[in-house]
Amino acid sequence: MKKLLILLILLIAGIVAFDMLFPAQAAHYGVALERWRNGLESKSIDVDGMQIAYNEGGQGEPLLLIHGFGADKDNWTRVAGHLTPHYRVIAIDLPGFGQSSRIPNAEFDIVSQTRRVHQIASALGLERFHLGGSSMGGNISLTYAGLYPDQVMSLWVLAPAGVEGSEISELRQRYAQTGENALIVKQAEDFPSIMQFTMSKPPFLPYSVKHQLGLRAAADHDLHKRIFETLNRDAQSVNALIKDSPIPALVVWGDQDRALHYSGAEILKSLMPNAKIIVRPGIGHLPMIEEPQRSAQDWLSFQSSQ
Question: Which residue numbers delimit the AB hydrolase-1 domain (predicted)?
Fold first, then answer.
């Protein structure tokens, strides 16, 4: 028993040392393992000269998932593990984010991004599908439903941006008053501040993953700063686009969201006759990361009620 305990301690020490000393390799293997555990495979496709990275897995009706600003497709990996038995889950990296192509001179307003998602969906052979999005991805999803309603079977939006009339969030207040953007960092070591701001219940991430995400965030600083400025300057309300839309929609928000105020949930409910809202107590801006199993169950229960 004592020898087994010593071996276990040495194994853990070796893993920690590998994670600290070789963060790029450790993060690569760790993320790959996480995708595999949740039934996903990493793929890429060329779309109009853009290399689009995505995770795909499962079977059933397609569910296309879109991440938020500064995030990537792996925001959906843990929740996908509960969904792949029921859906063909496809989580994409938007151009300019994750492992997809950087297109510095492109337009990044919501309509332009939505049209790119339409190109990606077409390239993936998706004609009718369920569509989910978080934050900026929720804005894109709602806009997509307004522009291409015949393609969208149902919507799943988590703390979506673009809802006119909601209360001013801490993120928007700070940005308006000081120009500070809590979603962008200049240095890799500052990346944990984004996790602390966006989540009330952040999951454990090993040093290697946080370090690599920080390096990518720092490298993307200038591009993402410009994208955020575009989104702020050219903000377009989704209210008129989705008013009276018959598409079934599940709207999920955390009542501790500091990035976008959860008052937007009731506004969407008033605009969309087939919308159901869930405001999750004690949860921040990213419910699918903070409560992956519960978030998946909410979606599955919503679908079973249709």
Answer: 62-292
Q: How remote is the C-alpha of 201 from its chain's centroid? A: 16
Please write the tens of the pLDDT for every residue from 48-72. Answer: 999 999 999 999 999 999 999 999 9
Residue type at 102 in one-letter notation: R
Structure tokens at 16: 């920690």
Q: For residue 187, how many other CB atoms are within 10 A of its CB?
A: 11
* Catalytic member of 67, 211, 224, 261: 67
Find where tokens 């793929």 sit.
43
- Looking at the DSSP assignment, which residues form a beta bridge with residue 64? 90, 131
pLDDT in tens, 101-124: 998 788 999 999 999 999 999 999
Which is the catalytic residue, given 135, 166, 169, 245? 135
What the block records as the tokens of 257 is 């969201």
Cα–Cα distances (Å) from 212 to 30, 36, 188, in that order, read 12, 19, 8
pTM (predicted TM-score): 0.94
| Amino acid identity, position 30 | G
135 tagged catalytic: yes
Residue 101: active-site member: no
- CB-based burial of residue 202 (10 Å sphere; 0-12 exposed, 13-18 middle, 19+ buried)? middle
